[in-house]
Write a structure and sequence with these properties.
The complex is a heterodimer.
Chain A lengths: L7 H7 L4 E5 L4 H7 L6 E5 L7 H13 L3 E5 L5 H9 L4 E4 L5 H11 L21 H4 L5 E6 L2 H5 L1 H4 L7 E4 L1 H7 L9 H16 L4 E4 L5 H6 L4 E5 L1 H19 L1
Chain B lengths: L7 H7 L4 E5 L4 H7 L6 E5 L10 H10 L3 E5 L5 H9 L4 E4 L5 H11 L21 H4 L5 E6 L2 H5 L1 H4 L7 E4 L1 H7 L9 H16 L4 E4 L5 H7 L3 E5 L1 H19 L1
Parallel strand pairs in B: 1-2, 1-8, 2-3, 3-4, 4-5, 5-6, 6-7, 7-8
Helix pairs in contact in B: 2-3, 4-5
The chains are: A alpha/beta, B alpha/beta.
């Protein structure tokens, strides 16, 4: 009998530690290549991106190989989507546009087996060879929700009371749009709303998540944010641009 | 009627310019993402890597969208492999282990229509809507041979006499192995052989290609190499390590 695979991010966050998550074009080979870098988790993008149900098995297996938590950002807060995503091997979920406590409760209900919720009964790929999968799965399933509408901020006190949510991620892009500042995530009013939201999450004893780039990672850690998302695409772009610049100046 | 798509790398080399070609985990989405950075060509890896025939159309289309030359490194210098790769949409071919003038002539024969060669007759995806594809294809097909065995270096003079090869690329990995220095592509004797080979190529008026990185690129430009291959995964790893370093030091 084998033990259920540990959820690295969930346990790190549970111990009050920082947890890193990497996003960027998802392919099996790319994730495999990233493995030795040392990120805690990979975000598999199916809210806006191409990750389909059939891709989840192979993509999450690569994460398993390197002990990175596989987190799928889904497209729609719906029980069937949530349990099918977990059944296919995801260790974690990121659910967009959670605006009310009821919506947050629905996520928990769909992602956790009884007695916490009523997740569709089925053995995930993560349960292969595990005798008591149903009693252990809840402890290794990460739930993160996105706060990304001003209405969610208005309802924050109630949303923060919902149990079994491992991280409350404040997503600036849609939040800015919902505040009337489309494409202006740097707008002072958006930034101050984001910061205040982090503060409220942390004060409630919950875990805050946020976008942490090369430029703001120290600052966001300073604010108490523990769940850090970054994208490798900007690294590729920066490396490519500076390389092409070198060629330009070498041939001048 | 549409014109045949230009081969940017070939044109730049013909104009006496440098051509930048980028390699790294190939997926259509990643290639699309690379487009805006400004590389001239993309190296699709089918010698050691996963690129199969069925993937060539989608990957080369992603190159077409951005005007980047699609260059497939094939696994076997065989007529059927060469023309099928071109028929599926590749604008360029890299053939490994070309050690003799006869082998080099075979490559030209298989990749060029008459009167230069006898490439198998089929209209490539690149010929859609082009009325006189067979008359124009030769001008837009890039042929690169790899000089990567000490035997090839010894036969270089004869190989360089073969016409219609756009680039003689000096590949350090296998070359070092064939010289008895497996895994030591930067061994002084290997570097010296590479430099001498590049010199011989450029002295005959032919174009030399080299594997470069951010540190060596200026050096190879000064040595006269004009087909420059670099790899983007190194940038991701380097920047990723910096980022994780920031996270670790900010959290301790």
């Amino acid at each position: 009998m084998v033990n259920i695979r540990e959820n690295k991010v969930k346990h790190k966050l549970g111990r009050g530690e920082l947890s890193t998550m990497l996003m960027g074009h998802n392919t099996t080979d790319m994730i495999d290549f990233m493995g030795p870098l040392g990120f805690d988790s990979v975000l598999l993008e199916s809210e806006h991106g191409p990750v389909d149900f059939a891709d989840i098995g192979p993509l999450t297996r690569i994460c398993d190989i390197w002990d990175m938590t596989s987190i799928v950002r889904i497209n729609f807060n719906n029980p069937s989507i949530i349990y099918r995503t977990l059944d296919l091997g995801a260790q974690g979920l990121m659910v967009p546009h959670i605006n009310t406590a009821e919506e947050a409760e629905a996520v928990v209900d769909a992602a956790k087996f009884a007695p916490i919720g009523s997740r569709g009964s089925y053995t995930s790929r993560q349960g292969y060879g595990i005798g008591d999968y149903f009693s252990k799965a809840n402890n290794e399933t990460l739930i993160t929700i996105l706060l990304e509408d001003i209405i969610a901020i208005n309802n924050l006190s109630e949303i923060l009371k919902v149990d079994h949510i491992d991280a409350f991620y404040v997503a600036p892009g849609d939040l800015a749009q919902s505040m009337g500042y489309l494409g202006q995530v740097e707008h002072p009013e958006v930034q101050s709303t984001v910061d205040k939201t982090y503060e409220r999450i942390i004060r409630a004893g919950r875990v805050a998540g946020g976008m942490a780039s090369d430029n703001n990672v120290e600052a966001i850690i300073e604010k108490g944010v523990k769940f850090l998302l970054t994208s490798w695409e900007s690294w590729l772009k920066a490396g490519g641009r500076s390389y092409l610049e070198r060629i330009k100046s070498a041939t001048k | 009627m549409t014109g045949l798509r230009e081969n940017r790398v070939k044109r730049k080399l013909q104009a006496g310019d440098i051509a930048t070609v980028i390699s790294g985990h190939n997926s259509p989405d990643v290639i699309d993402f690379l487009g805006s950075i400004g590389f001239d060509g993309v190296w699709l890896e089918g010698e050691h890597g996963p690129v199969d025939y069925a993937e060539i159309p989608d990957m080369t289309r992603a190159c077409d969208v951005w005007g980047m030359t699609s260059i497939v490194r094939i696994n076997l210098t065989l007529e059927g492999v060469l023309y099928r790769t071109l028929d599926l949409g590749a604008q360029g071919i890299v053939t490994p282990h070309i050690d003799t003038a006869d082998q080099a002539r075979d490559v030209v024969n298989a990749t060029k229509f008459a009167p230069i060669g006898s490439r198998g007759m089929a209209t490539s995806r690149q010929g859609y809507g082009v009325s006189d594809y067979y008359a124009k294809a030769n001008d837009e097909t890039l042929v690169v041979v790899l000089i990567e065995d000490i035997l090839a270096v010894r036969n270089l003079k004869n190989i360089l006499e073969v016409d219609n090869i756009d680039v003689f690329f000096v590949a350090p990995g296998d070359l070092s192995q064939s010289m008895g220095f497996v895994g030591q592509p930067t061994h002084p004797e290997v570097i010296e052989t590479i430099d001498n080979t590049i010199q011989q190529i450029t002295a005959t008026g032919k174009i030399a290609g080299a594997l470069v990185n951010d540190e060596t690129v200026e050096g190879y430009i000064n040595k006269g190499a004009r087909f420059l291959l670099n790899s983007w995964p190194e940038w991701v790893i380097a920047n990723g390590k910096d980022y994780l370093g920031k996270v670790y030091s900010a959290s301790t």
